[in-house]
Amino acid sequence: MKIIIVGGGQIGGYIAELLLENGHSVTVIENKDRALEALRKNGLKEENILIGDGTDVSVLEKAGTRNCNALVCATGLDEVNLTAAMMAKFEYDVPKVIARVNNPRNEWLFNSGMGVDVKINQADIIGHMIADEMNYQSIMTLMRLSKGEYSIVRIHVDYHSQCVDKPLSQIKLPAESLLIAVYEDETMMIPHGETVIRAGQYILAFADEESIKELNRIFGG
Length: 221
Known about the structure:
By secondary structure, this protein is α/β, with parallel strands linked by helices. The chain has two domains: about 120 residues, NAD(P)-binding Rossmann-like Domain (Rossmann fold, 3-Layer(aba) Sandwich), CATH 3.40.50; about 80 residues, Regulator of K+ conductance, C-terminal domain (Alpha-Beta Plaits, 2-Layer Sandwich), CATH 3.30.70.1450. It has six helices and eleven strands. It has a six-stranded parallel β-sheet, sandwiched between helices. The longest helix has 14 residues. The protein is elongated. The termini are far apart.
C-alpha cells in the first residue's frame, strides 16, 4: 500500500518505520529541521522524505496523494491535521484518512464531515488504559477499535481463577468476545476447544466493554 504521513515528529516517524518494516510504500511530509534531522538519524531514507508543508497542494501532489491508499495526519497541531484531512478526502478522494487528535476538546471536530475516517485521540486512549488498569488488575488494554466499542486486551490468568486447568470447551465465554491467542514464556498457541487454561498464562482477546468485565471475572480470579 502507498501511505502518506503528514508530520514527521516522534509519532509520524515511528509510524513510518513500522509501515516500512511491513513492506508498505511510505512518504513522510515534514518541513521542520529538527524533525527532519531525527527522521534521517533514525534511518529513514531520503526517498521516503518530502520536505514541505502537508497542507500545500503542490506538496501533496508531489507526494502522490492522488494515488495513495491512505493518508495519516500526525502533526502536533489539530488545525493542521484537520486541514490536511479535508484536502486529502475532498480534493484527492483518499480512501482512508487517519488523523491524530492532540487536544481532547477538539475531538468533536474530527469526523467524516471534516474528512476524517479514523481519529486517534492519545489522551483518551491513555486515560482508558489507566482506568482499565485500576478497574481490572488482570487486564491490560492493548488497542481500542471500532470507535472504542471493542478492544484487544491482554488477560493474566490468576491462580485463583475458576477456569484454571479447564479446557476452553468447558468455559462459557461472553458472546461478544474472541480469544486470539494463549501464551506463556516464549510459547504461543492459537486457542481451540481442547486448549487447557493454566495459571500464569496470558490470553489475548478481542471484546466489547461488557465482555471485558466478564473475562476479568472468569480469568482474573
